[in-house]
Design brief:
- The chain is α+β, with helices and mostly antiparallel strands.
- The chain folds into two domains: 74 residues; 98 residues, no CATH class.
- It is 44% helix and 19% strand.
- The chain contains eight helices and six strands, in the order H-H-H-H-H-E-E-E-E-H-H-E-E-H.
- The strands form two sheets. The protein has a four-stranded antiparallel β-sheet, covered by helices on one side. The chain has a two-stranded antiparallel sheet with strand order 5-6.
- A hairpin with a 6-residue loop joins strand 5 and strand 6.
- Helix 2 packs across helix 4.
- The longest helix has 16 residues.
Length: 183
């Protein structure tokens, strides 16, 4: 911990270890005796985020892992050109969720035609966010990361299936389809 507080490289290595800790590989037990050190590391990472560093996204992802949010730490991007794939919870068609510079929409991805039958996403209001979505959004807003906050509001908002028109919570459906099973 002392080394991570003085060295960007050590902080990055510690963050990478945490981000890779969860999974089926049996390494989860390595962190069992590190609860105190991880709590200190969370505080260190949060202070670093508040300094608005160049490595903001990497530090944000490391902090997600330090908070036990391994899933979001592994999949969250910078929302310049992010795509999330999930099955519609009602008709099971594969839906592509796009959040980035080219739009914020749900669509059916066609190999030849691209994203067809686009439906605009309904972003969550900051007051409507809860849990990790709320924390992520509040942290991004606090640190002046408007694009990240906007992307999070869309990711934790609602999408519409282009095939059956059902509306669903994007983050919940994506998480249930992609979250690793921890043992």
């Amino acid at each position: 911990m002392r080394l991570a507080s003085r060295s960007a490289r050590a902080r990055g290595l510690a963050g990478t270890i945490l981000r890779r800790a969860a999974g089926h590989h049996g390494c989860d037990d390595l962190l069992a005796d590190c609860v105190g050190a991880i709590a200190e590391f969370r505080k260190l990472l949060d202070r670093h985020l508040q300094s608005r560093p160049v490595d903001y996204l990497a530090t944000f992802l490391d902090l997600l892992a330090a908070k036990g949010q391994y899933h979001w730490s592994a999949v969250l991007g910078d929302f310049t050109d992010d795509f999330y794939h999930l099955a519609c919870p009602h008709c099971a068609v594969e839906v592509t969720i796009a959040i980035g510079d080219h739009g914020r929409y749900s669509a059916i991805r066609d190999w030849h035609q691209g994203d067809v039958d686009r439906r605009g996403l309904r972003q969550a209001s900051p007051e409507g966010l809860s849990g990790i979505g709320r924390w992520m959004h509040e942290t991004a807003v606090r640190d002046g990361r408007e694009a990240l906050a906007d992307g999070i509001a869309h990711l934790f908002g609602k999408g519409e299936c282009p095939r059956c028109a059902s509306v669903f919570n994007i983050a919940e459906e994506y998480t249930s389809a992609n979250r690793p099973v921890l043992r």
